[in-house]
């Protein structure tokens, strides 16, 4: 696992291709600084093409999933000596786009990502969560689109992804405009998370079990499924149908299809090659 040796992320490859990945700034409640943003992007780009990884379980070390952005980092990057407003705006736009690309690396990753949230999940934390595929949380998890309290609008994907996840425009506007906290049960009722658990251990166990189920399936099928879901979320039904027809025109030729069919007929467990 030397190639997953990061300062602010911890990683461990479990059985059957499940990568356990955690935010690892526990003393800062996993608040995002420049280095963590950079490592997140590099790590998920590596995961995307790592043949040994079939699914990711993503969590946070310490007493919180993520307390948001590191305020020292934010202040140092928004205090700019340039006086010309046009140039200053371009510098800040470049800064925001870099952070957006780091979070989007999760959504763009070829592998399914299961997120386990406990404790605080604030600001950037909930935006990171929105970029994952499946979300579990503890009953005491506390979510907040907190940026409104800091005098700015959420800008790394939350306002774009959360309405599509929840499907209730009014509710997301309420949460974004008030910047209020909400807990695990409300997150489940909103559809933000799939399940709520009593504690982090229970949530992690369930996430690992789900990840093992996913990892046992054809990795080609999982990549195609995630890509199609991502594409279809942004396009019409007809465009989505055309996309998967083209994609499966190639992928139906994979050896995974006859392997899966044979295993189904013989009621045996299929074995698929790495990507």
Automatic annotation (TrEMBL):
Pathway membership: Lipid metabolism; fatty acid beta-oxidation
Record keywords: Acetylation, Fatty acid metabolism, Isomerase, Lipid metabolism, Peroxisome
CDD domains, sorted: crotonase-like (cd06558)
Subcellular location field: Peroxisome
A GO MF label: delta(3,5)-delta(2,4)-dienoyl-CoA isomerase activity
InterPro entries in alphabetical order: ClpP/crotonase-like_dom_sf, Ech1-like, Enoyl-CoA_hydra/iso, Enoyl-CoA_hydra_C
Any single Gene Ontology cellular-component annotation: peroxisome
UniProt main location, coarse: other
Keyword Nucleotide-binding assigned: no
Keyword Isomerase: yes
GO BP terms, alphabetized: fatty acid metabolic process
Family classification: Belongs to the enoyl-CoA hydratase/isomerase family.
Name of the protein in its database record: Uncharacterized protein
């Amino acid at each position: 696992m030397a190639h997953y040796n990061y300062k602010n992320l911890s990683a461990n490859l479990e059985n059957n291709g499940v990568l356990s990945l955690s935010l690892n700034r526990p003393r800062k409640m996993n608040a995002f600084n420049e280095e963590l943003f950079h490592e997140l992007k590099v790590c998920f780009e590596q995961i995307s093409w790592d043949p040994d990884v079939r699914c990711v379980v993503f969590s946070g070390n310490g007493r919180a999933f993520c307390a948001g952005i590191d305020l020292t980092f934010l202040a140092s990057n928004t205090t700019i000596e340039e006086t010309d407003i046009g140039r200053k705006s371009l510098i800040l736009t470049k800064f925001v786009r870099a952070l957006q690309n780091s979070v989007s690396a999760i959504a763009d990753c070829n592998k399914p990502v299961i997120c386990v949230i406990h404790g605080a999940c604030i600001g950037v934390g909930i935006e990171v969560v929105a970029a994952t595929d499946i979300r579990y949380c503890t009953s005491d998890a506390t979510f907040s689109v907190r940026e409104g309290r800091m005098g700015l609008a959420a800008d790394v994907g939350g306002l774009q992804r959360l309405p599509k996840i929840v499907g209730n425009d009014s509710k997301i506007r309420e949460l974004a405009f008030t910047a209020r906290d909400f807990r695990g049960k409300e997150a489940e009722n909103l559809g933000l998370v799939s399940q709520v658990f009593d504690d982090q251990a229970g949530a992690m166990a369930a996430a690992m079990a789900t990840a093992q189920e996913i990892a046992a399936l054809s990795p080609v099928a999982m990549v195609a499924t995630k890509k199609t879901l991502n594409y279809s979320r942004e396009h019409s039904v007809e465009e989505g149908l055309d996309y998967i027809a083209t994609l499966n025109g190639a992928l139906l030729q994979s050896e995974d299809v006859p392997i899966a069919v044979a295993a189904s007929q013989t009621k045996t467990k299929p074995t698929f090659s790495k990507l």
